[in-house]
User: Fold these one by one.
Assistant:
Number 1:
Amino acid sequence: TLLASSAASDVYKRQIKMGRTIKLILYYFAYQFAVAIPGMFGYTIWKCFETQSFDLHNAPTSLAIILSLLGTLLMAWHLIHYKYVKLDKQTLASLPLKPTCLYILMGAAAIIWMNWLSEMVHLPNIAENVFAQMKNNVFGILSVCIIAPIFEEIFFRGAIEGYLLRKWENPRWAILVSALIFGLIHMNPAQILFAFLFGIILGELYYRTGSLLPSIILHFINNTLSLILMNVFEEKDTLTDILGNTTAVHVWGMTGIAIFCLTFLLFKKEVKPVQWAVEATEPVPAEETNPQN
């Protein structure tokens, strides 16, 4: 009974701490809608006067991407302005050469086996047409390769996971919850599993280093490599198409797992977790202390 009571108490505490996380997610969607709705409406009205027809479906890809970028940049401003995440020497610190090489190799190996696993699961890709339009669009490339790695790490690792690490006794819960949100917010079945697993790895990096830079670098490598492969192998949609047969795909995936496990163990030995204890004077975002403003 005592153990059950303690477990229930832990669950309740975690639910309480999720309030800020839920609020930030709502802010993110609010900024996206606040930019997208007037932007698309303004474009539609302009085209209506120009062509005498009302057709929202033919809005250019660049417009949709630019509006999404503006919403993302506004959310980034919100996080930094209201101090949900601090961008200082600690959160942007680089690692020595050896752990840097280890986490890059670890991340590359993870990308291999996670793509292999995602292909084995055969989840539907409902955003395939979106990716096809973005891969050759300058704003799409900017969004995927630069803005997304920086913003998403500030948001999911810095603002969400960082807060939960300081509030929850078990860091694994903070890593798992932030990774789950990271996966679900992609809203594309083909990406959710990959993003969740990748989010765990990025979360572990942030937990151990206290710096966003390693996770930003890995995120950049993943997104940029994906975009390059989409253009190089334009007519090939799967690893089987690229490697030629399923045996090669399985060998590729298993090799990725082996390299990942080895480099992960070496990285854990090399980099011990930073101290995430809550300070008595931990800053509270200005909007939470002065809600009327």
Note: The radius of gyration is 21 Å.
Number 2:
Amino acid sequence: ATREPRPAQPQAAPAPPQAAPTQTARPQPAEAQPTPQQQQAAARVIPAQPQAQPARPAPAPSLPGDQLVPLTQMRRAIANNMAQAWTAPHAHAVMPVDVTELMKYREKVRHEFAEREGFDLSPAAFIAKAVVEAVRQVPQVNASWTDQGLILHREINLGYAVALGEDGLIVPVIGDADGRSIAGLMRAIRDVVDRAKARRLTLDDLTGGTFTLNNTGPLGTVVSSPIVPPGQAAIMSSESIQKTLTVSADDAIAIRQMMNIVIGFDHRVVDGSTAARFLQAVRDWLQNAAPAVPVY
């Protein structure tokens, strides 16, 4: 006998989906507005600058007939010193000087000086004396930079740049420059120049400089850009003396002997106003004091 099929059991209806619990949004506090002081401080912030990548040296062209000149020891030393010197931020300033009266005074005393010393009295001696007197007035240029602070040198040891033609440049040091007369500075200049050209300088002659004078006038330059030697704060160039048509304060036209003086300085140590004060001190001494200063 066949069984009767059982009636299907009723299925429970699925539970209605539960609503996700909702969170009441909290009001966000209003963003605080910067104060005027904060706005001024933000305006002074300098945005970070991308770091400059070191420039790669340009490849040297190879052309027919080229000749390789090996580096001398002096040329390699000059290259190393100049590369080190340019790690300091350089700046320059120029000032004209009327040396008409100074040159008249030199002409007056040079013959007696030559008879007594056996060599000529160069304008370089007066310029060196002016530099020494200006350093006394503006001692900030007689300094050195260090990460711990500035070193102000009590001694004034004057480096004097000597050109050696195509062989290069060397800077012997005249020690105790502030203790020398014009005649004493002239003797020292002649001594270091003669020994430099004869290649008879010692290591002691090249160390201890605190300020450098670069007398480019004999080369005929009008304006140059001297590079500060490593370890110093400034250097001054004295340019060629030339007769120039000038207009005086009372509008008179005259021919005067003029010379430019140029200071190169490490801007970490010396500011522009300090450099200008130094040039003014050099100028004033050459224009006013020099014709009255005894040679000895």
Note: Confidence is low (pLDDT under 50) at residues 1-5, 19-25, 44-49.
Number 3:
Amino acid sequence: NMPCGSTASRLLTGTVKTELNNDVRDAKVSIMDNNNSEIGYRMSTTTGEYAFDPMVAANQTVVPSRDDNHRNGISTADIIAIQKHILGSQALTTGYKMIAADVNKSNSITAADLVELRKLVLFKIDKFSNNTSFRFVDKKYNLTTGNVFSTSFPEKATLTTAEVNNVFVNFVAVKVGDVNDNAVVNLTGTPEERSGKTLSFNVADANYTAGETVKVTMNAASFNNINGYQFTTNFDNQRLEFVGFEAGKLNINDDNFGFTMLENGKITTSWSNPTAVSVNDNEGLFTLVFRNCEYF
């Protein structure tokens, strides 16, 4: 028994890891009082751990957060996987992946999530409009694909005065938008290749005169059973002025291109289709249209 007037203490420690048990560094773990005011915080280490000094065992809330590099781990491969989930052809297999797919934090997975994700891939935006780069779930919670959106999953842990001595609170971190688990969540991590394949295009060489329209057609080369691609086209913006694009064998529109880096001579593009597509060699997939602005 503790003497009169003494106060029970608590030693709070825990871990922040992904559902694959990868250590998450630089998550801020805050302790909030009853007025939701922060009374202290720790940053998770390279081993995904955090530890507070001994404290009074009061009613408190433990809240993790991290909001950096929204583009981390995101590619057209994630868009394809979410498209397949929406269409019902290949469902996401865990509740954590479903949280990752809910890019706009609407408690549902819809085409609106795909639109925002593609904007991020194309550098049209740099962060999600209504979400942080990471979300967190109390590891003790039994998260399933059935309950992930039907009830509010705990993004923080509540501690009462009864929780004393050594108290452990662990969280599962979810990188929003990354449903294939290749975000780098620790400085010791290594980014994975987006896919095992390199896609090639055939582009014809030609000479052009000043003021002439220049059409650069991306022709298929071994374009067999392709679900999607993303790449950046570099062009000499001192000699060429971008005018627009023309669809070919692929169903593309403005949503498939990013034009925010034209002044740097770069055009980003991302295309995906939940059903694999094949196009005969040397058939035009799409065409980029420029004007030759070089005068001699």
Note: Residues 76-87 form the longest helix (12 residues).
